[in-house]
């Protein structure tokens, strides 16, 4: 327990663990004071969720490359500053995060048994397919950006 490494009179018992930790961690530990009057038990905190509780989805997001954005923060700021209806900003944000509720996601969530695109029966409907590769998407893009 962490409390075992704290001496109420002398503070941290650094000599018991400082040889196994890098200096920046030692400095971080020194900056934490333990209140001996607080009668709280040690507890584990999962710092990848907002409430400190472990969830499988937060762990998955942490290790999944598709959930880690390589886009700079300015990209997100530009989306949120666009003068378009809120639903368009939300759609753009969800599309950029790969979170549109396409059939492959619906199948993953057991909301359907068919992950295929309604227009392209042999192709799984992913976010990229829906926005770029589908025959309907291509037709829409060609109207906006002629070939
Ligand atoms: Zn399609």
Could you give a short description of this structure?
The protein is mainly alpha-helical.
Textual characterization of the structure:
Helix 6 packs across helix 7. The longest helix has 11 residues. The chain is 40% helix and 3% strand. The mean pLDDT is 83. The protein contains seven helices and two strands. It folds into two domains: 64 residues, no CATH class; 74 residues, no CATH class. The protein is elongated. A two-stranded antiparallel ribbon has the order 1-2. With 147 residues, it is mostly helical. The structure holds zinc ion (ZN). The site of zinc ion has 7 residues, from loops.
Could you outline the blueprint of secondary structure elements for this entry?
Layout: E1 6-7, E2 11-12, H1 23-30, H2 56-63, H3 73-81, H4 86-96, H5 103-108, H6 127-133, H7 135-144
Antiparallel strand pairs: 1-2
Helix pairs in contact: 6-7
This protein binds zinc ion.
Pfam families: zf-RVT
Domain Reverse transcriptase zinc-binding: 54-141
Organism: Linum trigynum
């Amino acid at each position: 327990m962490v409390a075992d490494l704290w001496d109420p009179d002398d503070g941290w018992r650094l000599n018991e663990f400082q040889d196994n930790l890098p200096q920046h961690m030692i400095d971080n530990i020194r900056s934490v004071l333990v209140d001996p009057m607080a009668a709280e038990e040690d507890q584990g905190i999962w710092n990848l969720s907002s409430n400190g509780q472990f969830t499988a989805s937060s762990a998955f997001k942490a290790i999944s490359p598709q959930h880690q954005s390589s886009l700079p923060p300015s990209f997100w700021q530009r989306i949120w500053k666009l003068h378009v209806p809120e639903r368009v900003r939300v759609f753009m944000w969800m599309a950029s995060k790969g979170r549109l509720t396409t059939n492959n996601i619906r199948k993953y969530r057991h909301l359907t048994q068919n992950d295929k695109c309604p227009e392209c029966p042999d192709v799984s409907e992913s976010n990229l397919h829906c926005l770029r590769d589908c025959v309907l998407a291509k037709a829409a893009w060609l109207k906006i950006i002629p070939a």
